[in-house]
Amino acid sequence: MNTKDGMKENNFEVIRSGINTTYQDFGRKNLYHIGVPFSGAMDNRNYLISNKLVNNKMNSAVIEFAYQGPMLKFNGESTTFAITGDVNFNIKRKKNSILEKGNSYQTYNLKSGDEIDILSTNRSVYGYLAIAGKIDVNLFGNSCSTNTKAKIGSNNGEKIKKGDKIFFSNSDNKIQIKKLNYINTKIEQIRVIRGTNYNYFSKESKNIFFKNEFNVTKLTDRMGMRLEGNKIKNIVDTNIKSEGLIKGTIQIPADGNPIIMLSDHGTIGGYPKIGVVISADYDKLVQIVPGSKIKFKEVSLSDAEKLYKFYNLETQNILNQIS
Fold it and tell me: CA distances (Å), 267 to each of 34, 37, 38, 264, in order?
């Protein structure tokens, strides 16, 4: 820790790392041309809410975890944190060894020696831990977002591991205890617009894509979500000249099972693209756990744009509720 930069000796010691614990922020822009995707927090709304609860800047670094989160021991004077997502966690107070059950969307104060034990996400995948102040992380492309496949971002492009120390400066502002009444809703159908290779697929396969359910497989991570179901038949060519990809693109490889590109996706791909998940549904998409069933619904580009504007407005209204 570099104290001469004004950082205090506040840190969390990682007692248990969790399954997939990384530093994330809003992501990095304008690097697709050199093969670097946007990355960033998977669930953008929960990321923003976590920072807002602790009075951080909206693009501040947070700790993202999947399924099981980390166990952290605080060392320092005092600090404030908040956890968002559908998450089970406890706080162990050093003073009296009392185990306190935590609630998501609420701020908590910690004293030196207190521990946070993030047990699991509940019927979802990702959760977020925001610490009041500034986490000491390195940037790549003006972002701390860790892409473990490409080995870029903070922490040398690696997951947070047992024994690591998370250093941070405390917020200069005194934070009152805050609580947001927010429920993570599910979505029955994932809305998509047609992909650039939509006409590569038979009429029967298009009907299958929009009328049948698909299973979310365990082969799902920050890079992509693999689905299984009735095969999508390609009537033109199962391989194309590699083209640029964006988050939410749905590719159909030769086996006929869709793959949805997620935040750490490769920037080019050679499989035909049948559709693209609309931005308004992305946060809910990434929270669907393996073993679940999903269904797609087609919407027009103009409707997708309207839905995205509404989703952003809804997110801003939620943030405005946090005084």
Answer: 9, 6, 9, 9
In angstroms, the CA 311 to CA 309 distance is: 5
CB-neighbour burial class of residue 60 (10 A; exposed 0-12, middle 13-18, buried 19+): buried
- Contact indicator for 267, 32 with CB cutoff of 8 Å: yes
| Residue position matching structure tokens 């590109």 | 261
CA angle 278, 56, 111 (to 5 degrees): 125
Percent of the chain with pLDDT over 90: 89
Pick the range with the lowest mean pLDDT from 186-190, 210-214, 225-229. Answer: 186-190
Helix axes 301-320, 44-53, angle to 10 degrees: 20
CB 250 within 8 A of CB 25: no
Look at 187 and 284; give whichever has higher pLDDT.
Answer: 284
In angstroms, the CA 165 to CA 73 distance is: 9
Q: Residue ranges per domain, the chain?
A: 3-170, 190-320
Return the exposure string of 102-139: e unless at least 16 CB atoms fall within 10 Å of the residue's CB, then b. bebbebbebeeebbbbbebbeebbbbbbbbbbbbbbee
Architecture of domain 190-320: Beta Barrel (2.40)
Tell me the whole-structure pTM to 2 decimals: 0.94
Give first-to-last CA distance, the chain, whole Å. Answer: 32
Token pair recorded at residue 60: 């501040």
Residues 6+ apart with CB under 8 A from 195: 249, 250, 272, 273, 274, 275, 276
List, for residues 174-202, the tens digit of each pLDDT value. 778 899 999 999 888 999 999 999 999 99
User: Would you state the pLDDT for residue 239?
Assistant: 84
Q: What is the pLDDT of residues 22-55, one digit of tens each?
A: 999 999 998 988 999 999 999 999 999 999 999 9
Look up residue 219 and give its two tokens: 């082969």
How many C-beta atoms lie closer than 10 Å to residue 265's C-beta? Answer: 23
Q: What is the structure's pLDDT at 2?
A: 42
